[in-house]
Write a structure and sequence with these properties.
Number of helices: 15
Structural class: alpha/beta
Strand order of the largest sheet: 1-8-5-4-2-3
Order of helices and strands: EHEHEHEHHEEEEHHHHHHHHHH
Largest sheet: 6 strands, parallel
Shape: globular
Strand content: 5-15%
C-alpha cells in the first residue's frame, strides 16, 4: 500500500474563526489583494480586521466563474498596487481565482503557459504568493485543493491550473459565513460536497487516510444537508456542511474524483450550468452505471463494498442497499429542485462531444471502472 497525502499548512475551523484573519494577515505581509464575490457576505467583516491590524489592502471582485481575462485583470491590479499576498473570500470561483492570481504573481509568463488542455501545461516552478482561503459557501473544498478551475468561453471548456504548491497556506473555515447563502446555493454546493466525498471514496486512488475523512464527511452531510437547506440559520447544520466540504476537498486533493466530475467539467464549459447542480443531476446515473459495470466483472469487488458503505452512511441505516443509495440521491434531487441536463440546453446532439471530451479528463481516469461508450451515453440520457 503506497500513497501520499498533502493539505494546507494550517487549517482553522470554527464559529468566529474569521476574527483571526487580521493577525494572520499581518504575519504574511503589509499589503493584501482581497478577492471577493458578489457580496452575499458583508466584506466589512474582513476589512475591519485589516484596518485593526494595519494591513493595507486592495479589493478585486469576481462575480462569475473566472476566465483568463478575469485572472489577468486581477494580476494587473496586484502588480499595480504592489500586493504581497492574497485572500480569497467567497465561493469556489473566488478562491480558485485567488489561487490562480497568486501563481502568476511569482511565476513568469501568462496564464496560458500553465493551463492544461488549452495552454502549454508548463509546470509551476516558483512558489505562489501566499493565499489565505476563506470559503463563504460549503461545497467545493477548494480552500484545501491543489488546482484552480478556469473557464474558457472561447474553447467552451473548463480547464485546470494545477500544482501541489497551489494549496493555500491557510484555510480559514468559519461556518457562520455560510448562513447567508440562498437556498438554491445551499442545495447545489451541498450536493457538490456530497458528490466529491462519494467519488473520492470509490476513486482508483483512494487510500485509508482519505477514506477516514470521507466517512466522517458523508455522515455529517447525511444528517445536516436537508436541515441546512430548510433551516438556513441552523448553525450546527452549517457547521456539519462546512466540515463535509472541507473533508471533501482534502479527500479529492489526494484521491481524485470520478465520472461525475469528468462530465461536469465539460458540460460546465459548454453550457451556462452551475457546477454543483450539474454534479447533483449526474450522480445517481453515474452510480447506477458504475455498479452495473462492476457487477459484470467482479461481484465481490471492493468498490461494491464501498458503495454499500456509502448507502449505509447516507441513510443512517445498516440495512441500506446500493439501490437505496441511488433512491435517496434521486429524492434529494427532487427535494432541492435540481434541474435536468436538458434544462440547461443539453441535447442528444451534444452527447458525442461531451463523451469524447469527458473521456480525456483526469477525473474520468480515476473512476472505479472504465465505462463503455454505451454507459457514458446512458448517464447523459438519464441525467
Amino acid at each position: 500500500m503506497n500513497f501520499e497525502f498533502m493539505t494546507s499548512e494550517q487549517i482553522i475551523f470554527g464559529i468566529g474563526a474569521i476574527n483571526q484573519i487580521g493577525e494572520l494577515s499581518r504575519s504574511l505581509g503589509s499589503k493584501v489583494l482581497i478577492i471577493c464575490g458578489g457580496g452575499s457576505v458583508d466584506l466589512e467583516i474582513l476589512v475591519s480586521q485589516m484596518k485593526r491590524f494595519d494591513v493595507d489592502y486592495e479589493t478585486f471582485h469576481v462575480t462569475k466563474e473566472p476566465n483568463i481575462q478575469t485572472i489577468e485583470a486581477g494580476l494587473a491590479l496586484s502588480k499595480l498596487t504592489k500586493c504581497k499576498f492574497v485572500i480569497g473570500f467567497g465561493g469556489g470561483s473566488v478562491i480558485d481565482a485567488a489561487k490562480a492570481i497568486a501563481v502568476l504573481m511569482t511565476n513568469n509568463g501568462s496564464l496560458l503557459d500553465y493551463l492544461e488542455v488549452i495552454g502549454q501545461g508548463k509546470p509551476i516552478t516558483q512558489k505562489p504568493a501566499e493565499v489565505i482561503a476563506v470559503p463563504t459557501t460549503a461545497g467545493t473544498g477548494t480552500e484545501v485543493t491543489k488546482n484552480a478551475v478556469i473557464s474558457s468561453p472561447e474553447h467552451k471548456l473548463k480547464v485546470s491550473l494545477r500544482s501541489p504548491m497551489m494549496i493555500p497556506k491557510i484555510a480559514l473555515v468559519d461556518p457562520e459565513l455560510s448562513i447567508s447563502m440562498p437556498k438554491a446555493i445551499t442545495a447545489s454546493t451541498g450536493m457538490d460536497a456530497l458528490t466529491q466525498l462519494i467519488e473520492a471514496y470509490v476513486s482508483k486512488r483512494a487510500n485509508p487516510m482519505t477514506d477516514s475523512f470521507i466517512r466522517e464527511g458523508i455522515n455529517r452531510a447525511a444528517r445536516s444537508l436537508r436541515i441546512a437547506y430548510n433551516q438556513p440559520e441552523n448553525i450546527k447544520a452549517r457547521e456539519d456542511m462546512s466540515l463535509a466540504s472541507l473533508f471533501g476537498g482534502i479527500a479529492l486533493a489526494n484521491a481524485g474524483l470520478g465520472a461525475v466530475h469528468g462530465f461536469a467539467a465539460v458540460i460546465g464549459g459548454m453550457f451556462d450550468a452551475p457546477h454543483g447542480e450539474v454534479c447533483a443531476s449526474l450522480l445517481p446515473a453515474v452510480l447506477h452505471e458504475n455498479i452495473a459495470a462492476i457487477k459484470e466483472t467482479d461481484q465481490s469487488s471492493a468498490y461494491l463494498v464501498k458503495i454499500s458503505e456509502i448507502a449505509k452512511l447516507l441513510l443512517q441505516n445498516e440495512q441500506a442497499s446500493n439501490e437505496d443509495c441511488i433512491k435517496i440521491l434521486e429524492e434529494l434531487k427532487s427535494e432541492f429542485e435540481i434541474r435536468k441536463l436538458s434544462d440547461f440546453g443539453v441535447t442528444a446532439r451534444d452527447y458525442p462531444v461531451i463523451v469524447e471530451n469527458a473521456r480525456k479528463s483526469s477525473s474520468m481516469q480515476k473512476n472505479p471502472i472504465d465505462l463503455t461508450e454505451y454507459r457514458l451515453y446512458s448517464i447523459l440520457y438519464n441525467s
